[in-house]
């Protein structure tokens, strides 16, 4: 059997990439509760525009659903950035992923008010900054690997 040597501290990378599991379960519960409160039946993904304009519960549902969907859209990028960066800088990678996850919690809390503008007003922008850090550090790491390959 082949042996894979992981850098010291890579356990933090593994732990941080697992943290969105709990985030997504929490968001799913929030979506389910908001769906029930708004009376939006499956398989309808969002409340119709007229519903959201006339019902606060429908608007809250749309906002909670969008927070969850947006998290799912960015999750692969966050995980990939964390794993790539974690090969050479595990503490940085784990810290950025932890910040991204916390930022997504704050984003969801703000968005769940039903006022879309509040999605970043309560610290939700932290996730965007962490995502930028993951993209930049992941790109830097890939560049280092490519430079080493060609030298």
From TrEMBL:
Segments passing through the bilayer: 6-26, 123-147
Entry GO CC: endoplasmic reticulum; membrane; nuclear envelope
Subcellular location: Membrane
Keyword Transmembrane: yes
Keywords, ordered alphabetically: Membrane, Transmembrane, Transmembrane helix
Keyword Transmembrane among record annotations: yes
Domain of life: Eukaryota
GO MF entry, a single one: glutathione transferase activity
InterPro entries hit by this protein: MAPEG, MAPEG-like_dom_sf, Membr-assoc_MAPEG
Entries under Pfam families matching the protein: MAPEG (PF01124)
Topology term for the membrane: Multi-pass membrane protein
PANTHER family from the UniProt entry: GLUTATHIONE S-TRANSFERASE 3, MITOCHONDRIAL (PTHR10250:SF26), MICROSOMAL GLUTATHIONE S-TRANSFERASE (PTHR10250)
Name of the protein in question: Membrane-associated proteins in eicosanoid and glutathione metabolism
